Automatic annotation (TrEMBL), chain A:
InterPro entries noted in UniProt: Bet3, NO_sig/Golgi_transp_ligand-bd, TRAPP_component
The name this protein goes by in its record: Trafficking protein particle complex subunit
Quaternary context: Homodimer.
Primary residence: endoplasmic reticulum
Subcellular location per the Swiss-Prot or TrEMBL entry: Endoplasmic reticulum; Golgi apparatus, cis-Golgi network
Record's GO cellular component terms: endoplasmic reticulum; Golgi apparatus; TRAPP complex
Species, as recorded: Oncorhynchus tshawytscha (Chinook salmon)
Family assignment from sequence similarity: Belongs to the TRAPP small subunits family. BET3 subfamily.
Domain of life: Eukaryota
UniProtKB/TrEMBL annotation, chain B:
Family of the protein in this entry: Belongs to the TRAPP small subunits family.
Protein name per its UniProtKB record: Trafficking protein particle complex subunit
CDD domains on file: TRAPPC4_synbindin
Assembly description: Component of the multisubunit TRAPP (transport protein particle) complex, which includes at least TRAPPC2, TRAPPC2L, TRAPPC3, TRAPPC3L, TRAPPC4, TRAPPC5, TRAPPC8, TRAPPC9, TRAPPC10, TRAPPC11 and TRAPPC12. Interacts with SDC2.
Keywords: Endoplasmic reticulum, ER-Golgi transport, Golgi apparatus, Transport
Function: Core component of the TRAPP complexes which has a function of guanine nucleotide exchange factor activity for Rab1 GTPase. Plays a role in vesicular transport from endoplasmic reticulum to Golgi and autophagy. May play a role in dendrite postsynaptic membrane trafficking.
Record has Cytoplasm as a keyword: no
GO annotation terms (biological process): endoplasmic reticulum to Golgi vesicle-mediated transport
Statement: the UniProt record of this protein carries the keyword Transport: yes
Matching Pfam families: Sybindin
Subcellular location: Endoplasmic reticulum; Golgi apparatus, cis-Golgi network
Superkingdom classification of source: Eukaryota
A GO cellular component entry from the record: TRAPP complex
Length: 168, 198
């Protein structure tokens, strides 16, 4: 068994246990988001320490760094960045494959479960630690019958409990 | 020896971590006979030399230990008041260690917070946007390097002025810190790090 499969199995065990504990898809989604958030606030330090990327100048750069560096580093996949809103504050990450959902099939009684919602929390938590408030959600999910998995990210605002490092 | 201390300060200026590695070079131990020829006074809960500088004992040095037993503020190890103890001729001859007073945690916190504020002012004074803030403070005795991460953690390293390769060291410390912040789920972010052996 490779490391990736252990990861998929672990994540699967986590989600099924949450489903048993909460018996409510909405609640499970919330818990996954919270857990993801806690992972994100820590993961950002590891990411910054190992990748030595500097501060992104704008949201487009952020999107590129997330897709090409972060996803590559942690999940081994490179989603594509598309569907920019006219204002440049929203974009989509299209994932051709998602290691979390290898071999997973959602049963009918869990139709509103967002299985990979942990990822949304991770992205939200990580960006919050670098002073960006964002909204992250899945707009398409292969587990629910769509062709691709799409994560929609929207920039809310710059957080002003800022670093005194001369950033604005 | 060339690296004197490592500190980590969080976003709000509080200490997360401190490690001091300096050998106290400025210490002098002497055997004294009654009466004591230095004048001592109490300052900040410590007994310090106010007059009588000689033989490596300087004004401002604190009394660190008597006969090998570390003192506790202005009391000896067994609870007697030092000044009274030293007035008693039956206690002599005794050996006293004087030296630069070791800073308590609280005392270290103050300069660290001050540095944090200086750092903030430093970045605002920058003529260009996007300054990294104070990177290095140099004196004749030491250099103070500071590295601020994008998440607001400041890693501060005090080194010998001739020491090189500090940038790498700072990155390495950042990596190690991120490992600790990550891999221990019980560690709450921005809280002081309790590490054995430090």
């Amino acid at each position: 068994m490779t490391n990736a499969e252990l990861f998929t199995l672990t994540y699967g065990a986590l989600v099924t246990q949450l489903c048993k504990d909460y018996e409510n898809d909405e609640e499970v989604n919330k818990q996954l988001d919270k857990m993801g958030y806690n992972i994100g606030v820590r993961l950002i330090e590891d990411f910054l320490a190992r990748s030595s990327v500097g501060r992104c100048q704008d949201f487009r750069e952020t999107a590129d760094v997330i897709a090409k560096v972060a996803f590559k580093m942690y999940l081994g996949i490179t989603p594509s960045v598309t569907n920019w809103s006219p204002a440049g504050d929203e974009f989509s990450l299209i994932l051709e494959s998602n290691p979390l959902v290898d071999f997973v099939e959602l049963p009918d009684n869990h139709s509103s479960l967002v299985y990979s919602n942990l990822l949304c929390g991770v992205l939200r938590g990580a960006l919050e630690m670098v002073q960006m408030a964002v909204e992250v959600k899945f707009s398409q999910d292969t587990l629910r019958g769509d062709n691709v998995t799409e994560i929609r990210m929207k920039f809310i605002k710059r957080m002003e409990e800022n670093l005194p490092a001369g950033d604005e | 020896m060339a690296i004197f201390s490592v500190y980590a300060v969080n976003k709000s200026g509080g200490f997360i971590y401190q490690y001091d590695n300096y050998v106290h070079r400025a210490e002098a131990e002497k055997t004294f006979r009654y009466p004591l020829d230095c004048v001592l006074k109490i300052h900040d809960e410590k007994v310090v030399v106010s007059f009588g500088q000689r033989d490596g004992i300087r004004v401002g040095n604190a009394l660190l230990s008597i006969n090998g037993l570390d003192v506790n503020g202005k009391f000896t190890a067994d609870g007697k008041e030092i000044i009274e103890y030293l007035k008693d001729s039956t206690n002599y001859p005794l050996s006293i260690l004087f030296g630069r007073a070791r800073l308590s945690s609280n005392e270290k916190l103050m300069p660290a917070s001050m540095f944090h504020s200086l750092f903030a002012i430093g970045s605002q004074l920058s003529p260009e946007v996007g300054s990294t803030g104070i990177e290095m403070l140099e004196t004749d005795m030491f250099k103070r390097h500071c590295f601020q991460t994008l998440t607001g953690i400041k890693l501060i390293v005090l080194t010998d002025p001739r020491q090189s390769g500090i940038d790498e060291l700072l990155r390495k410390i950042y990596e190690i810190y991120s490992d600790f912040a990550l891999k221990n789920p019980f560690y709450s972010l921005a809280m002081p790090i309790r590490s054995p052996g430090c």
